[in-house]
Amino acid sequence: MASGTGTVPSYQTALEIGRQVESFVRNVVIPYETDTRFDHHGYPTEELVQELKQRARDAGVLSPHIRSDGTHLTQRETAIVLARTGLSPLGSVACNTSAPDEGNMYLLGKMGTPMIKERFLEPLRAGRARSAFFMTEPDNGCGSDPSLMKTTCRRDGDDWVVNGRKAFITGMVGAKIGIIMAKSADPETDGGACMFIVDLPSDAIRVEHVPNTLDSQLPGGHAMVSIENLRVPADQMLGEPGEAFRYAQVRLSPARLSHCMRWLGACRRANEIAVDYANRRVAFGKTIIDHEGVGFMLADNLIDLKQCELMIDWCADVLDTGSLGMMESSMTKVAVSEMLMKVADRCVQVMGGMGVSGDTVVEQIFREIRCFRIYDGPTEVHKWSLAKRIKRQWREAQA
């Protein structure tokens, strides 16, 4: 297994890890979908999260995408593993491959000092702590446009002092580790942003509100947060002052791709359930899969799921060359999120009333995929960015 050998696994080894993960999710995790330990928002409680992680730990599939030496599988190998954790909305939570922790672990592995890796990364990797990434802001602050960041940081002796508000901070409630982005007020940084890693909870960071949202997969919700005079030691800054936007790119492309991997697994599961339903449900004298309207929807699902898989593999190959892959990850995020939305919608349609009920996980997967089209950059923002690149490339070709 990746978490036990410390050696670079081959593609075949990654397939074996994927098989072990899939067996664990199908046989151990899926029965927990009917557990009652979910809060009033629908999020899994910390008690349930820790129980699931212990089951994964016992099965040897906790953090299966990370080797024992702390390095990650290749992106192509990670795709094999994360798609299997996605077969249940609780699968990535159990296996410690869910957002934002998976992306935060990747970032800390790339950017963290030895002290940061020991103090912050190791508890994350071991599943003893959850984390949150503080970037998005309310009140016309930072979102798809990072230049609008209003949260500030200023140097004060050996510390930095952070003030501001953040919005939709996933996993905040119950998190023990936070990564915070803030715009520097120091002249030498030329208005650049800084990135800090902090212990949570903190008296200087207050949860204002946890809204109800369509999705309900991740523990801790999506909190609105205020930060007031948070003091952070200078050695808890990631990288250099003023360079955080550049460092964020290290996290963004793999994180977008990881979402695609996990939700591909979820939609494969939804499609399995819809196919089973269509082969059992009888209407007008035959099973509904034999009616063209239903059979063709399931055929379209098969085609779209394969296209998603190929897009993910293509983008993973680009990232594995060492490229940041910003254009490729944008294209993949758009294509996969839009195709998976169609897949999830068809599954609901095939199943009719059962598809919109809580009696199967299909209804939840539909809700989760709808949210996927927004986070880590809405479809429209990625297309706008791609259009800018197309225009720039055209101008360069004319010069």
From TrEMBL:
Cofactors demanded by this protein: FAD
Q: Which InterPro entries match?
A: Acyl-CoA_dehydrogenase, Acyl-CoA_Oxase/DH_mid-dom, Acyl-CoA_Oxase/DH_mid-dom_sf, AcylCo_DH-like_C, AcylCo_DH/oxidase_C, AcylCoA_DH/ox_N, AcylCoA_DH/ox_N_sf, AcylCoA_DH/oxidase_NM_dom_sf
Q: Answer whether the UniProt record assigns the keyword Oxidoreductase to this protein.
A: yes
Q: Which residues form the Acyl-CoA dehydrogenase/oxidase C-terminal domain?
A: 245-390
- Enumerate the Pfam families for this protein: Acyl-CoA_dh_1, Acyl-CoA_dh_M, Acyl-CoA_dh_N
Domain (Acyl-CoA oxidase/dehydrogenase middle) spans 132-211
Q: Which residues form the Acyl-CoA dehydrogenase/oxidase N-terminal domain?
A: 16-127
Q: Which UniProt keywords apply?
A: FAD, Flavoprotein, Oxidoreductase
UniProt xrefs under CDD domains: ACAD (cd00567)
The record's section on PANTHER family has: ACYL-COA DEHYDROGENASE FAMILY MEMBER 11, MEDIUM-CHAIN SPECIFIC ACYL-COA DEHYDROGENASE, MITOCHONDRIAL-RELATED
Assembly and oligomerization: Homodimer.
Q: Which family does it belong to?
A: Belongs to the acyl-CoA dehydrogenase family.
What is the protein name stated in its UniProt record?
Answer: Acyl-CoA dehydrogenase family protein
